[in-house]
């Protein structure tokens, strides 16, 4: 299959995904294979929460729209322009995917296929339906993909390299088990935000999106705030109050009640607005429904610390306080060239 054919297939996939949003799903008769897939995809989205209780229609639609916006001709061309892709002997690349948020493994899936390799996918038990459906759509519009895509239920075999995502504990297992194979092993990471007290209300509202999208389950969710000495959280709580409806979701509410009770029983001091707790803590990884915070008195010292802890951090949000930080509200809409853990997946696949 020619490179342009692969690119065009993913552009068509982007057009297909662009039809689906939480407020309105509009069928476009110009989209390829729509008669076969449009209605079934809506049904799958509606069923997603029965497959994984955290995959509410709102969260699934958000993920789908994020990928629809990424998979445009302009974005794909910009992304791939940095590489010389000329794979003469395709390899079998195994993917071991996480399932914490909808379609979390799609970028790795895309990278393998766009570079001309074959993909062997072992999905998470928490996300076994969305990616296989998308794979079926790709095969329908370009049957050549049928020989490039395999979903594996049991043991992974006959692969040349692996990209595996898991917790810190499973990463140690992956590193041992795949020690003889080229690999990218992703561990647990968290995202942080650095504030200085000059943020606008709009920026703080957007920060609420960074914290609470996907109920805080993603590695790109902000789980830790760095604030200056004397910082008052009144404006922060006022801004994120528009996310208050999240407490009406039972699984989130259960986590809120449980984690708050654990903190209080341990006599920790908390700030609480009824759906989110703030706890002063040096750790980056906070539990669901809670955000840790830490005070700083010297931004330059903080920059040095964040650099030293970069292997624990997925991304940093700020109002240009930190070099290469992400604007508020943008953590869950990464570009195609924003690689997890800052590891260039395409470059890895081109030398594998």
Q: Describe it for me?
A:
With about 350 residues, this protein is α/β, with parallel strands linked by helices. It has helices spanning about 5-15, 35-50, 55-70, 75-80, 105-115, 130-140, 170-175, 200-210, 235-240, 250-265, 300-310, 345-350; strands at about 90-95, 120, 150, 160-165, 185, 190-195, 220-230, 270, 275-280, 290-295, 315-320. The chain has a six-stranded mixed β-sheet, with helices on both faces. Strands 3-2-1-4-5 form a five-stranded parallel β-sheet, sandwiched between helices. Strand 1, helix 5 and strand 2 form a beta-alpha-beta unit. Helix 8 (about 200-210) crosses helix 9 (about 235-240). The chain is globular, with a radius of gyration of 21 Å. The two termini are about 20 Å apart. The relative contact order is 0.13.
Summarize the entry for a quick read:
This protein is α/β, with parallel strands linked by helices and 352 residues long.
Mean pLDDT: 96
Sheet with the most strands: spatial strand order: 8-9-10-7-6-11
Write down the oligomeric state.
Answer: single chain
Instruction: Choose one word for the global shape.
Output: globular
Radius of gyration: 21 Å
Biggest sheet architecture: 6 strands, mixed
Strand and helix order: HHHHEHEHEEHEEHEHHEEEHEH
User: Total number of β-strand segments?
Assistant: 11
Q: Helix segment count?
A: 12
Helix content: 25-40%
Q: Point out poorly predicted stretches.
A: none
Tell me the strand percentage band.
Answer: 15-25%
Alpha-carbon distance between the termini?
Answer: 19 Å
Structural class: alpha/beta
């Amino acid at each position: 299959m020619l490179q342009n054919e692969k690119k065009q297939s993913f552009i068509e996939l982007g057009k297909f995904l662009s039809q689906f949003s939480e407020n309105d799903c509009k069928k476009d008769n110009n989209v390829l294979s729509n008669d076969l897939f449009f209605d079934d995809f809506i049904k799958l989205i509606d069923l997603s929460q029965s497959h994984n209780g955290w995959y509410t229609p709102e969260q699934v639609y958000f993920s789908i729209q994020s990928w629809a916006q990424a998979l445009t001709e302009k974005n794909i061309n910009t992304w791939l322009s940095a590489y010389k892709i000329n794979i003469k002997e395709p390899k079998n690349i195994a993917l071991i995917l996480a399932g914490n948020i909808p379609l979390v493994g799609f970028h790795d899936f895309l990278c393998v296929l766009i570079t001309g390799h074959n993909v062997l996918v072992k999905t998470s038990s928490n996300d076994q339906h969305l990616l296989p459906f998308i794979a079926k759509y790709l095969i329908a519009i370009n049957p050549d993909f049928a020989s490039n895509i395999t979903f594996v239920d049991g043991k992974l075999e006959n692969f040349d390299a692996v990209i595996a995502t898991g917790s810190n504990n499973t990463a140690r297992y992956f590193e041992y088990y795949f020690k003889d194979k080229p690999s990218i092993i992703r561990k647990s990471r968290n995202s942080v935000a650095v504030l200085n007290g000059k943020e606008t209300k709009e920026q703080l509202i957007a920060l609420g999106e960074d914290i609470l999208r996907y109920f805080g389950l993603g590695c790109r969710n902000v789980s830790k705030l760095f604030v200056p000495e004397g910082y008052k959280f009144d404006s922060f709580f006022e801004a994120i109050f528009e996310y208050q409806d999240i407490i009406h979701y039972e699984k989130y509410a259960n986590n809120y009640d449980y984690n708050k009770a654990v903190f209080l029983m341990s006599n920790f001091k908390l700030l609480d607005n009824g759906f989110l707790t703030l706890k002063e803590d040096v750790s980056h990884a906070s539990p669901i429904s809670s955000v840790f915070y830490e005070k700083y008195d010297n931004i330059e010292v903080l920059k040095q610390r964040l650099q030293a802890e970069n292997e624990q951090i997925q991304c940093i949000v700020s109002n240009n306080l930190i070099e290469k930080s992400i604007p508020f509200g943008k953590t869950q809409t990464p570009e195609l060239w924003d690689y997890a853990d800052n590891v260039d997946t395409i470059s890895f696949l081109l030398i594998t």
